[in-house]
Write a structure and sequence with these properties.
Blueprint lengths: L9 E9 H14 L3 E2 L14 H23 L18 H51 L3 H9 L4 H6 L23 E8 L3 H11 L5 E6 L4 E2 L6 E2 L1 E8 L2 H13 L3 E3 L5 H57 L3 E2 L5 E9 L3 H15 L6 E5 L16 H10 L10 H15 L3 H16 L1 H7 L4 H8 L1 H18 L20 H6 L32 H34 L3 H32 L16 H9 L19 H36 L4 H7 L21 H25 L2 H25 L3 H43 L16 H6 L9
Length: 852
């Protein structure tokens, strides 16, 4: 089979590269993305490898680029992304890149330091400006006749002795020694500054407690926030002025200010000095604004120039780093002139890889051609399934369960059809399927633009990655919706119902329940051309009964066919790996067990549908149709079935009892074959091996593989080193799992019926309890009410029935594939092929994955 149905054939190759050409050759292989290198120095520390200095240089360049990127994003400058991937630079170009990045970083850091110093100076001047303004208000209040409160508060700072001695002092003056009075040492002093607004209450309490109430604090808020020069945050601050007396309190007040990170500024006492300082401050602020603007313009120009090339620089540096990281996996020969590598490559791509190596050699100017030798190995090769944008999502569903063993049958191609179909059986609604299909189609049509956005939203990335799955699930749901004749819980009468009312109008209006019989002229005798007859939509009393019987049976039919297909897939694995024992003692009894019990159950359904009808003559009428479930239970218990009614036939066809007994005996006989057949054969082969050597052909019969590969989980496992007791236990577990699993897995497919029923009932509830309320209203008010109700109904439909029910059906479908289908043939014991690819490395943000 082709690689679509099995993983690619892989080869382990040895690669010899001249040291001068190694860089260019690895660069070409990285662009190709088809080679997985092995680490030939697993015991060597990462810091002791040959190219560790080059990797460190790349790390340093990446750090500088991340710094530039952070500054560019901080300024909101768009970075040019052409979507192109430049080639990996030559080693000599690293020096130019390092010099460019060093120059840009130093220039930007210098500009930032200057800007920060200017902003700090600007902040100090701005705070001083606010201090001069606010303190001027404080002093104006005292000088303008509003000094009674100030005088009383200030006198509280002076002791009783001083007040008594200076009773004739007159009005108290705030300040130092502007007015010449006696006992100057006792005049109050003051300090002024700014403090963060949220620290102010604690600051005030600390001043009061530490100074025992011998200070007077005045504060005023600065209305506009100030920018912190360190981090650019906006900070709200307040101006304060503290009056106190004596040097001891002065020292204490300054320590408290320092502890609360308050900034103190000089504030002249004389009004003339304050005005003169304020004018000087305003002049300096204007000059600083001019300089700051020029600095920001220069910084912006530097960042804009860097933003044009930043993406390309990142790609170049990451490619260089990936190349040297890969070269560290190589070995040096004894002459130190040749690098030796081992790598896994797809067998079909060896010529393409050799062409890439030649291009790399020519680019480097080397005269020695590279040598690529294929090696023989018994090691398990990695699993490589080629995918495109359509099959990638389906392959991801399979790999999430487990990566296929080497050359094992790949379920992904079959999942492309079975997955959306089984989903649609549970989600069958023409309207809901159309919504889902349109959403998937929109993502497919816009995939180039949406893929270029590269968002970090995980939920959106999951939806976008599965756009083809969503589209197919929607299309298949539209098909099953037509089969169920269900669109938003209503039916489409395209071809006209094949049932007709034989009652008159008064009979219909006066009777709550009326019955139409298929045995009379009420039914035309031929079914509706496509899907269910729309008459069932108005059959409120037995609609669910009819649909339950129909959906339950088709769930069992699809489930049994799906499981039989899975068992047949195991036949492809056993024949490919020439595993004769598994073919004879696992595949054949497993298939027989499934067919004689559960496929026979499916046949009974079709026989019942075909032989019994209301229009048939007795005893083939619908009243004599036996229950399939009761028949199957009686069959397994070797119990004689009872006739469904008086004078009815017990069985549906002649010899049914005999065939059922034979089928159950065959199924029971298959169990010991599955349980003991393979272990006994292995035991006999081992006894024979003690007498004479086992030939290569016998190895294949015992369970070995003749394709030159390692062990294979799909049936090519070696048992030479395994104890016989472990083989018997292992086989017993698998036999019990299969026999019991056949019953439980068949019942598990009933989730198709259950989810379909729940989805249909939820849709009907939303229609009858929400939208029908708006449809029953009349007049212009009814139109407004209908608009509101329709919007509410649409939100609930999309949110609950499409998203939540769709997710539920998706998970149930995933379980049916992982457990019920893949457990029949798929082991998933392999490991993924992880080639050295620049595209993957750049997509993952430069994270180079170590390959062993």
């Amino acid at each position: 089979m082709g690689s679509l149905f099995r993983s690619e054939e892989m080869a382990l190759c040895q690669l010899f590269l001249q040291s001068e050409a190694a860089y260019a050759c690895v660069s070409e292989l990285g662009e190709l993305g088809l080679v997985q290198f092995r680490d030939l120095n697993p015991d060597v520390n990462a810091f002791q490898r040959k190219f560790v200095n080059e990797v460190r240089r790349c790390d340093e360049m990446e750090r500088k680029l991340r710094y530039l990127e952070k500054e560019i994003k901080k300024d909101g400058i768009p970075m040019l992304d052409t979507g192109e991937s430049p080639e990996a630079p030559q080693p000599r170009e690293m020096i130019d890149l390092e010099a460019t990045f060093e120059k840009l970083e130093n220039e930007l850091r210098e500009v930032n330091q200057n800007a920060e110093a200017l902003k700090r100076n600007f902040l100090e001047l701005t705070e001083l400006k606010h201090i001069l303004r606010k303190t001027q208000v404080f002093f104006d209040e005292q000088e303008g006749g509003l000094n009674h409160t100030t005088e009383s508060m200030t006198r509280a700072l002076i002791t009783d002795e001083v007040r008594t001695a200076g009773a004739s002092m007159g009005p108290v003056q705030l300040g130092f020694m502007e007015k010449s009075i006696e006992r100057e040492d006792y005049l109050p002093c003051f300090v002024a500054g700014v403090i963060s607004r949220e620290k102010l209450p604690a600051f005030e309490r600390m001043l009061w407690r530490a100074c025992r109430g011998n200070v007077f604090l005045r504060q005023a808020m600065i209305e506009s926030p100030l920018e912190d020069p360190t981090n650019g945050d906006q900070v709200y601050k307040s101006v304060f002025i503290i009056f106190f007396q004596g040097d001891q309190l002065k020292t204490r007040v300054k320590k408290i200010c320092e502890g609360f990170r308050a900034t103190l500024y000089p504030c002249p006492e004389a009004p003339a000095d304050r005005r003169e300082m304020a004018m000087g401050v305003m002049t300096r602020i204007e000059d600083l604004n001019t300089v700051l603007g020029q600095t920001q313009d220069h910084r912006h120009r530097v960042l804009v120039a860097a933003a044009k090339n930043l993406k390309n620089w990142f790609v170049k540096v990451r490619k260089i780093k990936a190349i040297y990281h890969t070269l560290n996996l190589f070995n040096l020969d004894v002459t130190q002139k040749c690098l030796i590598a081992e790598c896994w490559v797809p067998l079909l791509d060896i010529e393409t890889i050799q062409l890439a190596l030649r291009r790399g050699t020519e680019r480097s100017g080397s005269s020695v051609p590279p040598i690529l030798n294929r090696m023989q190995t018994f090691e398990n090769p990695p699993t490589y399934n080629r995918t495109n944008k359509f099959t990638k999502a389906f392959q991801a569903l399979i790999d999430a369960y487990g990566v296929a063993s080497y050359r094992e049958m790949n379920p992904a191609p079959y999942t492309i059809i079975t997955f959306p179909f089984l989903f649609a059986v549970m989600f069958g609604d023409l309207g809901h399927g159309a919504i889902m299909a349109l959403f998937g189609l929109w993502m497919i049509r816009k995939e180039k633009g949406l893929a270029a956005q590269k968002t970090d939203n995980e939920i959106w990335n999951i939806f976008f990655g599965g756009r083809y799955i969503i589209f197919l699930m929607g299309v298949f749901s539209m098909y099953t919706g037509l089969i169920y004749n269900d669109i938003f819980s209503k039916s489409l009468n395209i071809f006209g119902s094949h049932w007709h009312l034989s009652y008159n109008k008064s009979t219909v209006w006066n009777n709550k329940y009326l019955q139409l019989s298929p045995a009379t002229s009420d039914y035309e005798g031929t079914p509706y051309p496509f899907g269910m007859d729309p008459i069932w939509q108005v059959a409120s009393s037995n609609k669910i009964v009819f649909q339950n019987a129909y959906k339950m049976k088709i769930s069992i039919i699809f489930g049994v066919l799906h499981m039989i297909f899975g068992v047949i897939m195991s036949w492809h694995n056993h024949t490919y790996f020439r595993n004769r024992l598994s073919l004879l003692y696992e595949f054949i009894p497993q298939l027989l067990f499934l067919v004689v019990l559960f496929f026979y159950l499916v046949l009974l359904m079709f026989i019942k549908w075909n032989r019994y009808a209301a229009t048939n003559e007795f005893p083939m009428t619908e009243a004599c149709a036996p229950s399939i479930l009761i028949t199957f239970i009686d069959m397994v218990l070797f119990k004689k079935s009872k006739p469904p009614g008086l004078h009815c036939n017990t069985y549906m066809f002649a010899g049914q009892s005999f065939f059922q007994t034979v089928f159950v005996l065959i199924a029971l006989a298959c169990i010991p074959v599955m349980l003991l057949g393979k272990p006994i054969k292995i035991m006999q082969a081992r006894k024979l091996a003690n007498v004479q050597p086992i030939t290569g052909a016998s190895d294949a019969e015992v369970g070995g593989m003749s394709n030159g590969g390692g062990s294979h989980g799909g049936g090519g496992e070696h048992h030479d080193e395994e104890e016989m007791s472990e083989i018997f236990i292992h086989q017993g577990i698998h036999t019990i799992e299969y026999v019991l699993g056949s019953v439980s897995h068949t019942a598990s497919y009933l989730r198709l019926w259950a989810l379909s029923l729940a989805h249909a009932q939820l849709a009907e509830v939303l229609w009858s309890m929400v939208l029908s309320l708006g449809l029953n209203k009349e007049g212009w008010l009814g139109g407004i009410f209908l608009t509101v109700v329709f919007a509410f109904w649409a939100v609930l439909t999309v949110g609950i029935l499409v998203l939540m029910e769709g997710l539920s059906a998706f998970l149930h479908t995933l379980r049916l594939h992982w457990v019920e289908f893949q457990s029949k043939f798929y082991m998933g014991h392999g490991y993924a092929f992880q080639p050295f690819s620049f595209d993957t490395i750049i997509e993952n943000g430069g994270a180079v994955t170590e390959t062993e």
